[in-house]
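User: Could you go from structure to sequence for me? I need the amino acid at each position, not a summary. Structure tokens:
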């Protein structure tokens, strides 16, 4: 995690946007395909010197009007704009506050959350905190995840499993994408100055090396909140799981619910749960 993620975010998004996408003519041949600083500055109504200071981290307090203009020109999604504002808070005037409010990651579970998990049976559902610790889960998740090794550790941790457990790459055929997503969660749900995340990052950098450290050093991106995950299960075979992520406001925790994406997966999960076929229905789209 570098100390100028706000500037790096702006620079990489500028370099990724072509003149044509911004409504400009291509013009003369370019060394890089993205927008020049002068072009973005002109479109956003700010000076080149000011944009340079922002990208170099020498000015970390742009006004809401400037942020809105840059977001419009760079064609940022809603999730990207939320991330941009979070980076601004971390690197701007709230820096000392960010350092002060980093409480230990939450591992307790309210009775209402436990009741919510129970209502999701027999679907594999799990509650994770901002560190990627698996805090609570359904029995359906227990039967699905235990053979994978996901529940090993005290506490079990999704990020640590992915980068240090030899089984992980065999379990997830799309390991690179899953690893990208979990690091995105780690960065998106934690402050740059969180000492607990720093300790985990130091541990995994030493244990896993570049596969982890390169992802952590990359420009942060918002994680996917839904999608499809393919799992090679040692007992159930290949599973295709649709997932939805429900974020608990102001808690840095998320509830991830997995549902079968096809009938063969639904049947396999029912078998794992010792239930007659039909307890879980396939969900697509």
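Assistant: Here is the amino acid at each position, in order:
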């Amino acid at each position: 995690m570098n100390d100028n993620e706000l500037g790096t975010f702006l620079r990489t998004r500028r370099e990724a946007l072509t003149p044509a996408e911004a409504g400009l003519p291509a013009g003369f041949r370019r060394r890089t395909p993205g927008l020049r600083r002068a072009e973005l500055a002109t479109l956003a109504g700010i000076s080149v010197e000011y944009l340079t200071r922002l990208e170099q981290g020498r000015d970390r307090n742009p006004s809401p009007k400037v942020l809105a203009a840059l977001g419009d020109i760079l064609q940022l999604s809603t999730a990207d704009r939320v991330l941009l504002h979070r980076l601004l808070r971390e690197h701007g005037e709230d820096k000392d506050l960010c350092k002060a409010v980093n409480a230990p990651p939450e591992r307790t579970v309210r009775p209402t959350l436990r009741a919510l998990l129970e209502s999701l049976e027999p679907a594999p559902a799990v509650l994770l905190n901002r560190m990627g610790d698996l805090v609570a889960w359904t029995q359906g998740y227990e039967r699905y995840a235990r053979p994978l090794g996901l529940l090993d550790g005290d506490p079990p941790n999704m990020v640590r499993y992915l980068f240090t457990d030899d089984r992980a790459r065999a379990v997830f055929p799309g390991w690179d994408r899953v690893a990208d997503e979990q690091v995105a969660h780690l960065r998106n749900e934690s402050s740059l100055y969180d000492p607990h995340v720093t300790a985990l990052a130091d541990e995994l950098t030493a244990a896993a090396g570049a596969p982890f450290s390169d992802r952590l050093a990359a420009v942060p991106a918002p994680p996917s909140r839904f999608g499809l995950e393919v799992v090679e299960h040692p007992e159930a075979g290949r599973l295709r799981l649709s997932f939805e992520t429900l974020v608990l406001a102001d808690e840095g925790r998320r509830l991830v619910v997995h549902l079968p994406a096809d009938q063969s997966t639904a049947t396999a999960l029912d078998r794992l749960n010792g239930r007659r076929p039909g307890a879980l229905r396939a969900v697509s789209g």
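One structural detail worth keeping in mind: The beta strands are 125-128, 134-137, 226-233, 237-248, 253-260.
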